[in-house]
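Recap slide: TRAP transporter large permease protein, sequence and predicted structure.
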Amino acid sequence: MSNLVIGMIGTACLFVGILMGINVMVVLGLVGAFGLAALVGMNAATALLSTVFFETTHSFHFSVIPLFLLMGFFAMRAGLGEDLFEATSRWMGNLRGGLAISTTMGAAAFGAASGSSVGTATVFTKLALPQMLDRGYDKSLASASIAIAGTLAVMIPPSALVVVYGILTDSSIGALLIAGFIPGIIFALLLCVAIWLTVLRHPERAPLDATYYTLREKLASLRLAGPLVLIILCIVSGLYIGIFTPTEAGAVGAALTLLLAVIRHRGIAKVQIGATLIETIRTSAMIFGILISALLFSKFLALSGMANAVGDFLTGLDVEPWVIVVLVSVIYLVLGMMMDAPALLAITLPITHPVMMSLGFDPVWFGIFVVLLVEIGAVTPPVGINCFVVQAASEGRVRLEDVFKGLLPFIMAGFAMLVLLYLFPQIVLFLPSRM
């Protein structure tokens, strides 16, 4: 049996295992380990296993993931999402659709601190959804706007998912983090435009809010949101100027967010440091497990020749590069409906990344492009993990069908963002090129 056939059998087993509901980390690791044993023998495979485990867990650069996660969990414990929503709703709540727009802008800022799409969707479902529904907002508009707003967390730095991409592709993590800043802001604005156009066409879906805030009250609200915005700007500017590395940025962000949480609660007890650390360890262990399994599977694909075969087939097609980009996009959108983001990147990048590099695309640009693709998949039926999170956190006030029903304008905004990134790659590359 040739190596390529073994690679094809292993890939088929991977997808069968996923469809059967086996944990992605487990099936990735098993296919990678047994595939390597079939290719190079048990002794050589065992040596490779130990090397991958050691290189993944001992590297100083990998510590950026738990540090960014810790920063996000401290931000949640501090109640910073509530502060951001209060500030943005005072400034934009009087507009038609203003609460939904406020949710988007608040989620963008909070997501920059948390780096978690699911976490941001959970927080703003509890904060914003009751207020929107109580003021007469359509259930589908309210819930869908929160589900898509959660995706901004992985675009605007710091983002744990961008770090995962950097690790899996051996790309510059600092450049990737900086690269997501401008696209994240533009995407947030596109989502706000999508909300505005929706309520312009269907004004009954977002009644005007009669609550009025004076200019003094609006300015006072900035005191609530200001500290977190300053922390985000500190991290981004420090990375951009070169004051600290991504790992140091994570440490600084976690320390400042902890300090902010302590000040806000006037003590350390309510921050629940022990519970926060345990939650960080659990999430980090899950991500590291997927990374280790993914690296094993990647080595299996490389040794079997499967990755090269698929790459040669795609690059050998007599078509324009944009056709390959569309094909890759469809693959990510379809698979993104069925699995979470780290697992999807782990499975696909060993094949798609070399293909895109051979076509001349920049690795930093492709990182932001593919992260956006993965997050659009996170809200797309029939799975759409963010949609399930919003429905679960709503405590029965919205159905899953309500969330899916309102997604179309926002998914179209996501597609528009993908087109912008393809036509104008400097949106992504401008800041990294000047670091």
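Residues 3-434 form one domain.
The chain has a mean pLDDT of 81.
(End of recap.)
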